[in-house]
Each structure stands twice: as C-alpha cells, then as structure tokens.
Amino acid sequence: MRLNQISDNPGARKGRMRVGRGIGSGKGKTAGRGVKGQKSRTGVAIKGFEGGQMPLYRRIPKRGFRPPHQKTWQVVNLGTLQKAIDDKRLDPGKMIDAEALIAAGLIKNAADGVRLLGKGELKTKIEVKVAGASASAIAAVEKAGGKVELPPKPVAEAA
Question: Does pTM surpass 0.70?
Fold first, then answer.
C-alpha cells in the first residue's frame, strides 16, 4: 500500500445536500425550511427566546468580575522545590529561574511569571529568581541560607 492509494471505504463520506435546486431534488422550493414565518427567512436570531418566559441566561444569578488584563502567575511552593532537588531534577548550586523550573517539569510555561509561595519546608540553600514571592517564602529561603531575587518595583511618577 502507498500513501497515494489510501482512500475511504465506499459510502463512508456523504456529499452535502444542495438545497433549493428544484422539486426533483427533494429539497427544492422551500429548501427544507417549511413555509413562511421568521425561521424560514435568513438572519434569524431567536435562540434565547423561551416563549415569553424569563430566559435561562437571565434567571441565573450573575456574580463577580474578572479583570480582562489580569496577570496569571505560575505558582511554585517551597515543598515542591525541595522535592525536585531531592529527586535531582533541580541543581541547588545554580540559579533557579523559570527556565530551570520548566526543564525540571515543575511548570509548563512561565505565563506572566513565577510566584514562589511558602507551603512546605526547605532544607537546601538555593538562589531563586522569580517574578513574585510571599513574605513567608522569602523568610524560609533566607533562613536556609539562600537568596530570592525579585524584579525591581516600578517607580510611580509624580504628576
């Protein structure tokens, strides 16, 4: 068998029905839309209409708000870092940044940056470069003899 000889079984694919092409086709005249009324015409938009009853999308309560340009952080806990170091997936001697975490399989992509959180216990001295960290995480890393490097805070301009 060759790639240019592969084909579907006979009758596996059905051609589209050409509507409105004469009464002999079986879908002529009204083209399967019935007669008259809004639905027989083009440009119909009555999907949410429930016969005068309050539609579902208005019956259900709406809550909350999601900012459209909200940053999404990849979260890494200290316990996860320690486990990766114990499993020899992270080298504690080198700087641990987003690329190292991706290579170790702790995160899939950096998104808007990595945020370090203080859940778990850290026993190894490490240097971490992240976009954000909780106060407890910074304290735990410094207690173990390590260092957390954060980006500089933007200076607000006086108007």
Answer: no
